Amino acid sequence: MLRLRPLEALYPYRLAAPRADAFGLALYSRLPLGAAQAIDLETTAAIDAEILTPAGPFRLLGVHLRPPTRPGWLAERNRQLAALEALRAAHAGPLVVVGDFNATPYSPYMSAWLRATGLRTTL
To answer: 108: closest CA among 62, 72, 77?
Structure first.
């Protein structure tokens, strides 16, 4: 986190979910945060935060899902996608989901998830 300290002056609102492995996350924002917390998506962290904008709040989910490099991790990544779908379904307002999904939008799992959630990829 020391390396990120220079960002604190530019982005005064932040939430960090540090970890010893490659799955730590941090959110740095120029806009104030409402309710914000680090959550677990099985064995990786996620950030669930309300971003307060002049036009109104929106919810941001920041993720780094498990890479599907082993059968067990593939199953976990797919369960993580299902958990994100449940979080999306429980929220009626504007939502942005960002991060490393460890899937391309062309994978059958990601394509199905996008259809199920009604979310769109920026690719």
So the answer is: 77
* Residue 1: pLDDT band with limits 50, 70, 90: low
| pLDDT digits 0-9 by tens, 72-86 | 999 999 999 999 999
Q: The pTM is what?
A: 0.90
Question: Strand 95-100 vs strand 56-64: parallel, antiparallel, or unpaired?
Answer: parallel
Q: Is residue 102 within 8 Å of residue 67, measured between CB atoms?
A: yes
- Close Cβ partners of 93 (under 8 Å, ≥ 6 residues apart): 57, 58, 59
Element (H, E) at 25: strand 25-29
CA proximity to 84, closest of 101, 72, 67: 101
With the CA atoms of 89, 41, 104 and 24 taken in that order, what torsion angle do they form, in degrees rounded to the nearest 10? 130
CB atoms near residue 75 (< 10 Å): 13
Residues contacting residue 81 through CB under 8 Å, at least 6 positions apart = 65, 101, 103, 109, 110, 113
